Amino acid sequence: MLVTGNTMVVGSQLLNNIQEKKVARHKFRKRRNINASKFMAIPGAAPGELTASPFSHPTQLLIMAYGPNGCVEQECKTVEEIHNFTNSWPVVLINVIGLGNVDIIEHIGTQFGIDRLSLEDVLNTGHSPKVEYYEHYIFSIIKGGYLADQLDTEQFSLFLKKNVVIVFEEKPDNSSFVNVRERIRRGIGRIRSCGTDYLYYALLDEVIDRYFPVLDNLNHHLNRIEDDIMARDNKRHPNDIIREIHHTKSDLLLLHRVVWPVSDLIGMLMREETPLITKATRVFLRDCHDHSKQANELVQFYRDTASTLLNTFLAYEGHKTNEIFKILTMVSAIFIPLNFIAGVYGMNFSTEASPFNMPELKWEYGYPFAISLMLLTALFMLLYFKRKGWVTPKSSE
User: Fold this and answer.
1) Phi-psi region of 392 (alpha: psi -120 to 50; beta: other; left: phi over 0)
2) Which residues fall within 8 angstroms of residue 89, CB to CB, at 6 or more apart?
């Protein structure tokens, strides 16, 4: 069989197009499956049983210890190495990145006296934000949000002890607390001169502050959708716009589930009396509480905006449909009398049998008369429709 070069190119292009369409359909079907990596405990499991998700990342231990005079960072291979920092530095930040190694997590819990029920909550990454008080530590869960192709969340589990803050992160992304780390390295602000409670506040505050860039992106997305809806020359298919609004509403709903409990979490930290949080740090927690309330209000506002955009788009599409039907109805109404006139003159009664039978058939200008009658009838009906206000001029931009 002889195959030319052009035929091979065309066949390759067709194959690529088919594959791209398959990938696009697959991507659309999978797009909203955003909680596939969220792991909950097996139903019926014993309390305190530690089970890691099969999708969990390998576990890393990163240590940052600091005081007023300096700081040090190191990646530890074993849990025992942490003792070298807790015994010689006033504040130690322990980052446990990735929840795949249950032995390391259990060993950390044993070394720092963390209850197994708390460790179980760490591994069950489907929890809502919360805070719990224990005798020697405070345990809190907070969700971070980031927007790429779609909105996704990450659970952060924080333990506040006397001179140690332990943070468990789902994913190996060192940018989660990059601002806090940089402030510690450079000694910016008061973070080096304060204790673990201020570090605990700073970590919570950075997670909350990262909600606002996500909200800005979603707001920009909603504005673009609004421009597409109002654009008269918009060539996008209505189903694409509806699908985009639906995806944005889904992102906002997920973000609402993440942000809404955070205000209560910070409120409990402000109200509960505990020696682990000083009075000076509670002032900063109040500011953190205001940020969480602001983020929650923005999420609710953007959800309402998305619903309004959907209603506006559906109303606009309905209005366009009504305009089309109105034009078709007027055209039909104009042609009804014209069809009647054409039908009358199409009966062809013989004028020889009676002078009353179609005398126009013998007129020299009978055909122009019939056409003129039709035109005058159509013009009269258009003027009548305009007088009634049924014919409106096309609005300008």
Assistant:
1) beta
2) 65, 66, 67, 72, 163
Segment holding 384, helix H or strand E: helix 366-388
* Residue 310, both tokens: 């959907």
Same-domain status, 281 and 370: no
Locus of tokens 């607390």: 177
DSSP helix/strand/coil, 27: helix
Q: Please list, in sequence order, all residues whose beta carbon lies within 8 angstroms of the beta carbon of residue 313, skipping any fewer than 6 positions away.
A: 229, 238, 241, 242, 245
Whether 375 is covered by a domain: the verdict is yes
Nearest to 153 by CA among 21, 262, 309: 262
Structural domain that includes position 97: 60-316
Give the domain CATH number at 294.
3.30.460.20
CA 72/CA 51 separation, integer angstroms: 33
In terms of domains, do 191 and 311 share one?
yes
Does 285 share its domain with 384?
A: no
What is the C-alpha separation between 254 and 183, in angstroms, rounded? 31
278-305 pLDDT tens trace: 999 999 999 999 999 999 999 999 999 9
Same domain for 189 and 68, yes or no, is yes
- For residues 117 and 48, is the Cβ–Cβ distance under 8 A? yes
Are 75 and 166 found together in one domain?
A: yes
pLDDT in tens, 339-382: 888 887 777 777 777 777 777 777 777 788 888 888 888 888 88
Distance CA 362, CA 269 (A): 102
Rounded to whole angstroms, the maximal C-alpha distance in the chain is 127
d(CA 173, CA 102): 19
What domain count does the chain have? 2
The CB-based long-range contact list for 348-354 (8 Å cut-off, 24+ gap) reads none
Instruction: Enter the pTM of the model.
Output: 0.74
Alpha-carbon 352 to chain mean position: 82
The rounded distance, in Å, linking the Cα atoms of 258 and 207 is 11
Beta strand segments in the chain, E: 60-67, 70-76, 91-97, 130-133, 138-147, 151-160, 164-169
